[in-house]
Write a structure and sequence with these properties.
Elements lengths: L18 H24 L7 H12 L5 H8 L3 H13 L3 E5 L7 E5 L1 H23 L3 H20 L11
Antiparallel strand pairs: 1-2
Length: about 170
C-alpha cells in the first residue's frame, strides 16, 4: 500500500505532487474506504456479500426491473443473476412478480425486509465513515470535501470513454 504522506514517505513530493502520485494516494484511500464499507456491511443483522448488496441496491434504484436488466447492470450472466435472485428471494429480501403486460417477463421488487436491510447497511456505513471523519482535523475534512467536489466536477467533464490520461 502507498504511504499517504506520513513520516518516512520517500515518494511524497510535497504540495506540487503530480497526478500519478496523487492517484496512488487516492487508490490507497479507496482501498481503506472499501474495507471500512465492507466491515460496516458485515456488521448488519443480515450478512450479505458485496454482490448481493449490489443486486439489492440495483433493484432499489430501479424497482420492477427484469432479470435481464439486473444481469446487464451487474455485468453477470442471466443464469447467475437468476440464482442470485433465488437466494435473495429465499432470504425474504426480494420478490419476483409477473410483468403485468408480458407473461414471460418477471419483475423484481425489494420486500419490506429488503428495504430494511439496505437501510441498516447504509446507516452502519454512515456511522463508520462519520467516526473516521471525526478523527480528522476540521481543516482536513474541509480540504477533503473541496477535493472530492473538484474530483467529481473534473470527472463529469471527461468524455465517458476516457479512463486514463493516455486516452485523452
Amino acid at each position: 500500500m502507498t504511504d499517504l504522506g506520513g513520516p518516512g514517505n520517500h515518494r511524497a513530493r510535497g504540495p506540487g505532487e503530480g497526478p500519478e502520485a496523487v492517484a496512488a494516494q487516492i487508490a490507497d484511500a479507496v482501498e481503506s474506504l472499501v474495507a471500512l464499507w465492507s466491515v460496516a456491511a458485515q456488521e448488519a443483522s443480515l450478512r450479505l456479500s458485496p454482490h448481493q448488496l449490489r443486486a439489492l441496491r440495483t433493484v432499489q434504484a430501479a424497482p420492477g426491473l427484469n432479470l435481464t436488466a439486473l444481469a446487464d447492470g451487474l455485468d453477470i450472466g442471466l443464469p447467475t443473476a437468476s440464482r442470485l435472485c433465488d437466494r435473495l428471494a429465499a432470504a425474504g429480501l426480494l420478490e419476483r412478480a409477473p410483468h403485468p403486460d408480458t407473461r414471460r417477463e418477471v419483475q423484481l421488487w425489494l420486500t419490506t425486509h429488503g428495504h430494511h436491510v439496505l437501510g441498516e447497511v447504509a446507516g452502519r456505513r454512515v456511522q463508520a465513515l462519520t467516526a473516521a471523519l471525526a478523527a480528522m482535523k476540521p481543516a482536513e475534512r474541509a480540504a477533503l470535501s473541496r477535493g472530492l467536489r473538484g474530483f467529481l466536477m473534473a470527472r463529469t467533464t471527461l468524455p465517458s470513454d476516457t479512463g486514463s490520461p493516455k486516452d485523452r
